[in-house]
Amino acid sequence: MTDTEHHVSKAKVSARDVNVHYGEKHALKHVDLEIREGEVTALIGPSGCGKSTFLRCINRMNDLVDTARVSGELVLDGQDIYHPSVDVVQLRARVGMVFQKPNPFPKSIYDNVAYGPRIHGLANDKTELDEIVRSSLEKAGLLGEVEDRLQEAGTGLSGGQQQRLCIARAIAVAPEVILMDEPCSALDPIATAKVEELIDELRENFTIVIVTHSMQQAARVSQRTAFFHLGELIEVGDTERIFTNPRHPLTQGYITGRFG
Amino acid sequence: MSQHTVKSFDEELSHLANILARMGGLAEAQLASALQALSRRDSELAARVVASDQRIDELEQEVQNFTVRMLALRQPVAADLRHIVAALKISSEIERIGDYAANVAKRALVLNQLPAVKPLSAVLHMATLVQEILKEVLDATVEQDLDKAIRVWNRDEEVDDMYTGLFRELLTYMMEDPRTITACSHLMFMAKNIERIGDHATNIAEVLHFVVNGTALKGARPKGGGGGLDIEGGH
Question: Whose CA, among A18, A219, A228, B171, lies 20 to 30 Å from B130?
C-alpha cells in the first residue's frame, strides 16, 4: 500500500515484494514497506499475521529456519540484504535485535555488553572496551543502577534491568537498526515505561523496528505503524493517523478490538 | 460496524448514545415549551422551563463522567475514540442549547408582564426554523446520517438571514414607538438566543462529520447577511 504522508526522513530499509514461505505455508505475501531512518516503526497485527516474520527478514534470522524461503528484495542503505556476498554476521552487527524474553548470557554484566565488541574486534585495548561497555550501559539507561557491580551475573538483575542489559548489548556493536520483538511483554509497567523512554532516546541514533501486541505501546513509542493481517501488509502510515483515522476496515477492526 | 470482542464496550458505547439522545430530546422539548410560553403568554410554563434546565445540566455531567471513565478504562482508538470525544462535545453543545432555551423562558416571564408587541410573530417564525434544524441535526446524530447533517449545516444561513431581517424590524419598531423599547429589547435578546441555538446545531453537524469521516467539515459555513449585526457585537 502506498503512502503519501509527509516524508521527513529517508528510507533506511526498503522491502519490495517480499514473500516468505515456511514449507508450503505462504507466511508473508508481497510486502512493500519502507522503514525510515531515525524513526520508530511499529509492526502490529494478530498472532500469525507475519509481523515477526517480517522483522526477522531484516537481519536474516529466518535463515536459521530450515524450511523458510525468502524472496523479493530487502535493501539496507541501498545494499541487498539477501545478496550471496553479504556476511550474515556483519549484517547482524548492523542490524541488532532484542527479544521478547530478556536473554542475557550467563556471564557478568560487563561481559554481556563486551561480548559483541570483542567478537567484532571493535576495541583495541581494555580501556577502549571499558569505554564501550560504560557508554552502552549509559545509553541503555542502566549504568547508574549497575555501575558498582559490573562483575556480577547479568542474570541476577531484575527482568526490566535484564532487558535493558540486552539493549545495551545490542547497541554495544554500534548497529544502525535495532529490531525489537515484543521487548516489554515480560516486563511490569514501570520497567516497560523505562524501556519505552529508552526507545524514544535511542531513536536519535538508531532506526528502530518494534513488534508489539500492545496497541498502546505502538501508539506511545512509534512514529509509523504498519498493520499486518494474514501475511499481508494492510496499511502503513503515521502512527497518529492510524490510531485516530485508519483507512482500512481491517485496521479499524483490529485496533478497536472488533475481531480476534 | 461489527461488534467488539469485549461486549461490555459496546454496551457502554450504546449507553453513551442513549444519554445523548435523551439530552437532545430534552433540549428540543425545552425549546418548544419556552416558545409556547412565549406565544401563549404562559408564565407558569416558562417557570417550569427555567427550572427544568437543571436536568440537561445533570445529563451533561453524566456524559462527562462516563466519557472520562471510558477514556481511562478502554483507551479507545480510531472510530471508538472519535465517538467518545464527539459525545463529550455534542453534550456540551446540547447543554448550551438548553441554556438558551431557558434564557428565552426567563425573558418570556418578563415579557408576559408587558403589553404584547407585534414583532413577536417574526421571532416565533424564526424559532420554528431553528426547531426544524435542531430536530434534523439530532436525528442525524442518532442515525449517524452525515448527508442530513450537512444539509442542516447549510440551512443555518437561512436563520442568519432571518435574524438580520428581524434585527432591522425590531430597530424600526423601537424608533417608531419608544414605549416598546423594553419589550423589543427582550425580543432582540431572545432572537439572538434562538439564532445561537442554530449555530450550536451546526456545530453538532460538524462534530458528526468528524465522527463519520475523521476529518473536519471543510470550508467556511455559509453566512447570511450580517448587515447591522456588528453593532450588536454578537458571534
Answer: B171
